[in-house]
Amino acid sequence: MIKLSGIEKVYRTSSIETLALDNINVDIQKGEFVSIMGPSGCGKSTLLNIMGLLDEPSKGEVTINERQLKGYKDKELARIRNQEIGFIFQSFHLINDLSVLDNVEIPLLYRPGSGSKRRELAKEALEKVGLSNRMKHFPTQLSGGQKQRVAIARAIVGRPSLILADEPTGNLDSNMGNEILNILLQLNQEGSTIIMVTHDENMAKRTNRLIRLFDGRQVF
Amino acid sequence: MLSNYIKIAWKVLLRNPFYTFITLFGISFTLLILLVLSAFLDHMFGSHYPEQQRFRTLYIPSITLRDSSRTSTMKGPMSYKFLKKNLSALGGIEAYGISSLFRTTNAYVGSKRIKMMVKYADSGFWRVTDFELLEGKLFNESDIDRGQHIAVITEKVRDEYFGPGESVVGKPIEFNGLKYRIVGMVKGSPVTHPYTYADIVLPYNSPKSEYESDSKNGAYIGIIRARSARDFPSIQREFEHLTQRGLKFPFEESGMKVAHLEAKALPFLTGFIYEFFQSESTEIFFTVVSLFMLLFMALPAINLINLNISRIIERSSEISIRKAFGAPSKTILWQFVIENVFVTSLGALIALVFAQIILSIFNSSGLIPYAVLSVNYTVFGIGLLLALVFGLMSGVVPAWRMSKLKPAEALKGA
After folding, report:
1. B313 and chain A in contact, CB less than 8 A
2. For the segment B273-329, what is each residue's pLDDT rounded down to a tens digit?
3. Contacts of B213 (CB under 8 A, 6+ apart)
4. Which residues constitute the domain of residue A98?
5. Contact status of A123 with chain B (Cβ, < 8 Å)
6. Residue A78 belongs to domain with CATH number
C-alpha cells in the first residue's frame, strides 16, 4: 500500500540544519491499522506528512500503490492526495466559514462529479459518523468530538484507500477520544488502511502494528 | 465549485464587516467618482442636445489678430460680416450657422424682473444644431429678410414670462425697450454649451445685434456642420485659406496695425484645448485626464493590495486544507481570482447604482437647466477593468505565493 525507503528529512535555515527523519524504512500493507508513537519532536508528524504527500523527503523514496512518486508534479501529487488519501488532523482544520456539509464536500470539489452527487456523498459520510443532524451547522457551533467526526467524514467522503490521522484524539477528552478511535477501527474493518500518530499507548495497542520513533529514527 | 467559491467569498466579506466596508468603499467610491466625473466631461465635450452632431461639427469661436512683431494680440469673437463672407464661400459642407454669444438682458412682468440670455443668429444656426421645436417654427431666411421683430424662446422664458403651459406663438415679449413677436418655442440648451445656450434667439439683423460692423472683431461665432468628420481637414484648410483671401496686411483694426490674422475652425474639444494651451493636440487633454484618473485610482488600489494581502495571509489555513485534500496550486489561484472578480464586481455594481442615483438627482435638481448627465459605459468598462486588474494583482500575487507553499508548511501556520 505504502512503502518508505531510506527517508531522510532535513530542515535548513541559514544557520541551522536539523535532521528531522533519518533513514526511515516502512512498508504498510493494505488493510493495516498502524500507529506511530514517539516523544514530542521526534518526527512523527513529519513522517505522516511525507506519507500523505504534504511534504517532500530530502532523501529517499515514497511508493504508494506501487507507484514510486519521486519527481511527480504538484498537479499529480494533488490528484493522488485527492483520490487515494484522506487526512484527519489533531486541530480538525475545518473551514469555519463553510457549513458542516460544505466542509465535508471539499475533497469532492477537486474531482469530476455533479453538485447533487457531491451532496449525496457528503450526506452519506456524515451519516456514517453520526452527524447527519448537524449538516447545516457551522464548525464553531460544534463540540470538539463533533468537529473531529466532521473531519473524519471529510477524510472518508472521497473513499480513499489510505487514511492518515495526526493525533486525532489529541484535543479530545478520553470518552470522545474512544468514540473517534471506534469510528477509525470500524473504517479499518471496512477495508481502509489507517496510519495514526498518537501519544496514547492504550490507543496504539488497539491497532495492528506500532512504529516507534525517537530523535527522527525508527526504533524497534 | 463556483458556488462554493462565491459562498466563501461572501462569508469572507461578512466575516469582517469593517474590512469589507473599506474594500467595497474603496472600489465603489473610486469608480463612482470616475463615473460622475466622466459624465460631466462627457456632458461638456460629447455630442449632446442640442449639439448631438458635435462629432461632425467644427466651431470657429475666435479670431486672433497680431501686429508685425507679435507683441500685441487681440483675440475674441468675430463680426457677422467676417464670418458670413468666409463661411458662405466654403464648399463641401452640409451647413453653417452664425450666432452671437449670449448676452444678459432683463424683461419685466409687472414688477417682476426676469433675467434672460439673448442670442442673435442666422437661420443656419438652426441647421447646425438640433433644437427640439415645442411650438411654432424656427425663423428662416425670408423671416430675417423681412426684418421683422421676431423671437424664438425656450420653455424657461415661457414659464417665467407667460406661465407654465401657456401657448406662446404670436404673443409679444418685450425687453430692451422693444417688442418681439414669438414665432416658436424650443427646448433650451444647457449653460454648459456656450455656443448654443440662450433663452431667446433673435434674428441677427434685430436691433442692437451689431451685425453691420465692418471690423474683423465682433460678437459672433461660427458653426460648421460637415457631412462627415472625415471632411474636417479639407474644410479647415479651405476655411483658413478663405480667411486670408483678399486681405492686405497690415490693416487697421481698433487702433492696432494687424499683420497676422488667424481664425481656425476646430472640433469642440480641440477648440477648447486651443483656447487654453494654444495647441490643437487633444492628446494633452486625454493624457491629463487619464493621469488624473490613474492617480485617483492608485490610492484605493494600494489600499486594496494591502487589504488583500492581509486577507489572504489570514486564510492560509483554508488554503492548506484545500491543498491537503487535493486542490492543485492552479485551482487555489483560480479560487482567489474568482473571489476577487466577485468582490470587484460587487463594488462596481454599487458604484453604478450610486452613480445613476447621483446623476438622476443632479438631472432633476435643475442645477444646470436642460443638462442631462448619464453614465458613460465606456468609462465604466475601463474603470471596472482597472479595478479588476488591481484586484487581481493584489489578490492573486499573494494567493499564488500561498498556493506554492508545501501544504505541510502552510498547515503548521494554520
Report:
1. no
2. 887 777 777 787 788 888 887 887 777 777 777 777 777 777 788 888 888 999 888
3. B79, B80, B81
4. 31-45+73-219
5. no
6. 3.40.50.300
